[in-house]
Amino acid sequence: MADRLPLIAANWKMFKRIDEAVVFIGALHHEVGRPTDREVVIAPPFTALAAVSAAMRDTAFKLAAQNFHYEEKGAFTGEISGVMLKEVDCEYVILGHSERRHVFGEEDELIRKKVAAAFRYGFTPIFCVGEKLEKREEGKTFEVVGKQLKQGLEGLSAEQAAQVVVAYEPVWAIGTGKTATPEQAQEVHAFIRECYSSLFDIGVANRVRIVYGGSVKPDNVDTLMAQPDIDGMLVGGASLEVASFKRIVQFQ
Ligand code: 13P
Fold first, then answer.
1. Coil, strand, or helix at residue 231?
2. What would you report as the CA-atom Rg of the chain, rounded to the nearest whole angstrom?
3. Catalytic-residue membership of 97
4. Among the options 97, 106, 131, 189, which is catalytic?
5. Which residue has the least CA distance to atom 1 on ligand 1?
6. Is 91 designated active site?
7. CA 154–ligand 1 middle distance (angstroms)
């Protein structure tokens, strides 16, 4: 199996002012130093991107945006473009997050355009998929996740697809304290890898990193990370405090 570098990402959502964000980066760097056996990515709100980018300059952390628009510029009130994110040295962009899909109505086709656009700017997309509770209860988890994957990845080359970070975030586990069990998460991650194998090939499937998100905490990170197809974590609430995020970064 290909070596996959674990990725631990903090999604701060609509939390932290600029000063709080900068203090966090200094404190986290002090606590975890420069890990080389895992990647640490921070996605602050847009207003803090420039300051966090500057604060990260002497760290090993990487910067992510939480969303972007696929056009370079234009009359798109309230949107931000890849050119603007490049100016602050963003390397990753979270796309298709369940809050974008379900609170703001983003659909597969829009997300597909954003995933494709991410490669035009040299960003690594963190492409999120996941089912709602009712779909899980109807036994439709694979159907939902398979469709989101197929549509979001359409048109990518095999090489691009291998570089995508897929985030499996079951909607019922986000911000609810209800984590998927390691077995539930592993089952879907293995399914995502199988989809990759049929959409591309086994080599691409073995390279792609698939991270889990949904109530990841210091006390469940180790068992989740022990699963063979779980390559990292996308962390919301527990990424807001240095102590809890540090423990997640230092999973064993
Ligand atoms: P929580 O960790 O707060 O459940 O959020 C998960 C998430 O949505 C990360 O993108």
1. coil
2. 17
3. yes
4. 97
5. 236
6. no
7. 26
pLDDT digits (tens, 9 = 90+) for 169-183: 999 999 888 889 999
Q: What are phi and psi of 90, to 5 degrees?
A: -70, 140
Query: Which of 157-162's residues contact partners 24+ apart within 8 Å by CB, and which partners?
Result: 158/200, 158/201, 158/204, 160/119, 161/196, 161/199, 161/200, 161/204, 161/208, 162/200, 162/203, 162/204, 162/207, 162/208
Residue 243: name the closest of 30, 83, 73, 41 by CA. Answer: 30
211 Cα–ligand 1 center, Å: 12
Per-residue pLDDT at 45: 98
Domains of the chain: 7-249 (3.20.20.70)
DSSP strand pairing (7-11 vs 165-168): unpaired
Ligand 1 contact, 180 CB (< 6 A): no
What is the model's pTM? 0.97
| Closest atom, ligand 1, to C-alpha of 217 | 2
Q: For the beta carbon of residue 245, count every other beta carbon within 10 angstroms.
A: 25
- In single-letter form, the type of residue at position 172 comes to W
- 226-235 burial code (b ≥16 CB/10 A, e <16): ebebbbbbbb
Scanning 58-156, the segments in alpha helix (DSSP H) are 82-87, 98-102, 108-120, 133-137, 141-153
- Map residue 113 onto helix, strand or coil: helix
Q: Residue 179 has what pLDDT?
A: 86
What is the token pair recorded at 56? 């990260």
